[in-house]
Structures are given as structure tokens and as C-alpha cells.
Amino acid sequence: MSLEQFDAVDVIRTKRDKHHLSPGQIDWVIDAYTRGLVAEEQMSALAMAIFLNGMNRSEIERWTNAMIESGERLSYPGLTVPTADKHSTGGVGDKITLPLAPLVAVFDVAVPQLSGRGLGHTGGTLDKLESIPGWRANLTNDEVQAQLASVGAVICAAGPGLAPADKKLYALRDVTSTVECIPLIASSIMSKKIAEGTGALVLDVKVGSGAFMKDIDNARELARTMVDLGTDAGVKTVALLTNMESPLGLTAGNALEVRESVEVLAGGGPRDVVDLTVALAVEMLAAAGKPTDEVRVRTALADGRAMDVWRAMIRAQGGDPDAPLPTAKETEAIVAPADGVLARLDAYGVGVAAWRLGAGRARKEDPVQFAAGVELHAKPGDAVMAGQPLMTLHTDTPERFGRAYEALEGAWELAPIGTDIAASPVVLDRLH
Ligand code: URA
After folding, report:
1. What pLDDT shows up at residue 122?
2. Residues with Cβ within 6 A of ligand 1?
3. Which of 126, 146, 217, 265 is the most exposed place for a label (fewest CB within 10 A)?
4. 396 catalytic, yes or no?
């Protein structure tokens, strides 16, 4: 069958009229789009038709495979240990990859973590790590292999050869309002993770105001779709649904989050960050065939073994783990107007504020300010006194404060002293 027997207008019409795309249509359109033979406006129309009319299970699987086939598939033939990776669907203050990758490597499971940069209000792992002086995100495939063998963990940029169809399509979806679509998100994430060649994968599917998925039913459907795609591709895949109503930890912003991650690696850090890091590590180790109990995992944080791997990992990529992190030129605090209990702290508002302070970017090519962001001094349930700082805003460009304050209007709420605020669990559900 010739790949050229299809036509973009027919493919768009098929989905526009709510029919299923055939395997041949999917293979053709992804390949032709990657090669520049399907125009951006045609792919925009198709993405919107998919956004509106969905794809069934077999269409999603074919779409994912076609995106994998658009590029290279990595493998780790020289490794004598299993591999496991984690992917988060993105949240505010989500720095978990930083302590998690070295922690898992302590238990002789290698972590090839190919990460991205932040877009919009959610931060990106590479932006965070680039705040460490000297650290380098771009590694060759040979460097990744060598570092996995010597250190056990790599966090780096996905190379241009990995799922190039998704790279083009994700950029297009971003500017055509077609991101928040389960078939397109699931195929986008899983094409990269399957092509990356990991043996086991733990998905952290965020639910709540700071996440793509605002409600748990949609998050569960996304998780189910991704777990099935991974499992069918031979990757041992598990998903945790986790809370993103409030920011994770006490920081949102690049260098601020690195500092907090180092606290976790030093055996301290905020409880929610530690609990989620440990829960995901336990899942990754089990999925990789090396089950380890929670106490042993916590001990590897407390006794410095995970820190040792972190330092080796940062050094291997040119970074200086002892160098001071950048600090912002200007800070301003928001203080509690009265005594009370912090009843609500909205992740989306904090994420947008951090972004507007300079921590994130509006366009792919924009630079980020490494020191910008929001530092929290209270979490929901904490008692505060009038005049006590609730959060500190950090930026190098003080003209940004105004728009950040606007993002935080209505994003937090004080209840009268003595109000009992139920603690929200970090992990809401698990799918396998
Ligand atoms: N992350 C991705 O890689 N793709 C999406 O579509 C959404 C989040």
C-alpha cells in the first residue's frame, strides 16, 4: 500500500464528520506532517477535529505508534540494571524529579529521565536544573548511556530525534488551543516515553486547579489511557493520581525549587514533597522488578545516599553542586491581614504569579529568570498571625510585581482561628 494514497483534506473530513481514522490514514498523516507535506493549517484543523470528536482506543494506539516511528527509539544495551522513569503531567512547585531520580538510582535501578522546559504556568524540570551554574541539559545519546552506567541517573533534554512528530504537533497544539484533549495528551506523553526506551514507567497524573485535569474523572481517564498504551507497548506502567489543588512544597520557581529539592536530599524538606518522592520511588522500584519498602527508601534520603548520587549527577553534566544558586534582585511579601488559619491556597494562582514574575515563559524561545518565583510561608491548615508573611514574591524585574499580585487575588483564603481544615491526601488513586 502506498503511503501517498491519502489526502489531508480527506483525513480532516473523516474526523470532522465523527468517523474513525483508519490505521493507514493515521500512519500517513503523521509521517507526511513530520516531513512537511501536510501543512500546519491542515494539522491544526485535524487537531481541532480530534479535540472536538475524540479518538477511540485503537486510533490512539495507532497515533502513538506513528509518532514513535517518526523518530529514533533508544535502548540501553550496555546496562546491567533495569531502567525506570517517571512522568508528571505537570503542576505548580512540582520539583519531584530532582530528588526522585537520584533516590531511585541508589537502589540499582537506572533512571533515564528525558525532560522538557516549562510552558505556561507549570514549570519545566530543565529550567530548574539550568539554574545550577554550569549544568548542561543537552547530552548525546552516548553521554546518556555512559552517565547511566556510571552514575545511575540522567536528567536531560530529549534529543531532536525522539518523536519529532510530537515536537511539531505539541508546538502547534499550544497555539491552537488543542492541548487539553485526552487522546492528544496521552499519545504525546507516551510516544516520548516509549521511544525513550525505559523498561518501567510511573505516571504522576496531577488533579486539581494547578493541573491540566481539573477533576478526578478526567484524570482517571487520562491515566487509564496512558497505562494501557504503556502496557501494550511492553513497558511496565503504573499511574498515581495526585493532588494539585495547592502547590507542592513551599516554592514555585526554578532556583527556589532546586534549593528545596536539595533540602529533601539532605533529609529535610516539606512533608508533601518528601511523601510524594517516596511514594513514586516505591512504585518505580516495584515496577522495575526491585521492590523495596518505604522505610528503606526514606532512609536513603535521610542518610545522604541519594544526595551522593545527586552530586555525581550534577557534576557529570558540568554543574557545580556547591555553587550558590541565583537569588532575585527584588522581593516583596504578602502578609496576613488578620489572625487566622490558611484555608485555601490555589495552585493555579501561585503558578501564574510565579510565571508572571519571570519563572516561566510565554513563548518557547523566551528566556526564564532563574531566581524568580513564589516562596510560601504557610500551607493550608497552618495558623498565621496578622502581619506574618504568607508568601514572598521574587523577581529581577520589579515591574512584574503588579501582574503577579493580580494572579494571587482570590487565590488564598483565611478562616477564623480554630477552624479545622482537613488535610488533603497527596496520593488520590493508583491505576495499573
Ligand atoms: N505534556 C506533553 O508532553 N504532552 C502533552 O500533550 C501535554 C503535556
Report:
1. 75
2. 89-90, 170, 179, 184-185, 188-189
3. 217
4. no
